[in-house]
Protein 1
Amino acid sequence: MESRFRFDYYYYGVESDQFSFYRVPRALIKDSRFKGVSSDAKLLYGLMLDRMAMSMRNGWLDDENRVYIIYTLEDIMEDLNCSKGTGVKILAELDTGKGIDLIERKKRGQGKPTLIYVKKFITCEKVSVSEGAISESQEVQKPEVQKSKNWKSGSTNAELPEVQNLEVEKSGKWDSRSSKYGH
C-alpha cells in the first residue's frame, strides 16, 4: 500500500521567511549556455556554491588562494538521494574534462578525498573544437577584476547602471500583472 503525505497547513505572514535555502543561480536556468545541463547538475552546483562559503570560512585555500571544497561522492549520493552511477554522471556533467567546465577536480592520492574547485559560471572563454583540438576564439568574456588590499574581495571595472529613485505607496491593492495599483 502506497503511503502518502497530506500537507494541510499554509504559511501566514512572516512564517514564510523561517527557513534557510540553497540557492541555484538564475543564469543556470535562463542562460542558453546551460540549456543542456540537467536539473540535477544545476542543483549540485548550487549545493557546491553553498559548501564553498563554508570552505572560505574554514580557510580552505590552495597555494594560489583559490577556494576548494571537499564533497565526496557518498555525500553527493546522500544529498541528492541517487545511486553511485547517477552521482558519477552528475559530477562528470559539471567537470572540466567531460562536462560543461563548472568544476575542476584534483585527486590527491589514495585515501584522501578529491578537492573540487567550483568555477565562476558568469565568466567564460568561448572555445571552438575542430578535429579534436581546442583553440580559443576571438571572443572572450572575462571582466577585469581589480584586486584590493584584501585578497578575499575584488570588484569589476564594469560600470553599474544607475539606480532610479522610485516612489512607493504604502497602501493600495497591488496588481501583479502591471506596474500600477489595481482597483
Note: The chain has one domain: 21-156.
Protein 2
Amino acid sequence: MRLVRRLLLSIAAGLSTLFTACAWHGPRSVDHLYAPDEVHIIGHRGARELAPENTLAGFRVPADLGYGFELDVMLSSDGVCVVIHDDELDRTTSGTGFVDEVPWSTIQTLDAGTHFATRFAGEPVPDLSTVLVEFGSKVVIDIEIKSPRDKSTRAALAAAVVGEVERAALVDRVLITSFDPFLLEEVRLANAEIRRGQLLGSFTGADLSFVEKYVLKNLLLNKRAQPDVLAAESAFLSAGYVRRMHKKGYRVLAWTVNDEAEMRELASWGVDGLITDRPDVATEVLR
C-alpha cells in the first residue's frame, strides 16, 4: 500500500511539474516595487501580532520600520472598499453581520481595536482610500481583494479597487493580489498597468474540489490572471519551486512567516519577500 501511495505521489508530482511548465507565463518586472536581490519584509494585515489587523494603527507599525504591508479589501453594501479580512464583522469589530450587507455609514462607526487590546479601543475600520492617502507615497501596499460571496460582483469589486488606486495616483506603487484568478482578470481588464499577484496555497481545508485545487496550484488559469508575482503559503514552497519560478521571471513572496527558523530557510531559498505578522522579528533575523 505504501509503495502504491508513493507511486501515485510521484506521478502527481510529475504531472504538477509538467502542467506548471505548460501554463502561460509572462510576468513583468516589479523592480519598481521590490528591489532585486533583496528579501523584502511585508507586514501581514499590518502587523497583526503587534496591533489590530487591517487598521491604520496596524499599518503604522511596518510603515514606521520602512516596510510595506498587505491588507484585505471587500465591498460594503453601498460599494465602499472596506479594509477587512473576514466576510463577517464579528471577529475583529464591535459589529455583526456580513460586510457586504452593511452600509459604510455603519461600518465606519465600529470599534476595530478593542478585540486586540483595550489601548486600541475606538480604532476604526478604514476604507481603502484613507489607507492609500496616508501610506501610498511612503511604502508599497499589497492589496488583497477577497473573492466576493456573489461571484457575479467580481467586475464591480475589481473596478472599485482599481478606481481608488487610480484616484490616489498609485498605479505604479501598489500590487493587487487575489486567490481568485477570475478576479485578477477583472483587475487586468480595468487597468492592465497595475501589477498583479496570484495567491497560492496548500488549500488544506478549503472548500474546493480536487480539480479546482489542482488547477489553482498549477497556475492553469494564468492566461486569465496574467500575474507578475506569486505569493505562496510558506508550506507550499520548496527551494526547487522558488528556483523554477524565478527562471520563469516571477518574484516569489512567502506567507505567513512568523517563525525565525522558517524565515532563515525561506531566505536561503531565495524568496523575494516574507509576509509576516512580526516585521520586528523578521528585521532581526534578516539583519
Note: Strands lie at 40-43, 68-75, 81-83, 141-145, 174-178, 195-200, 229-233, 251-255, 273-276.
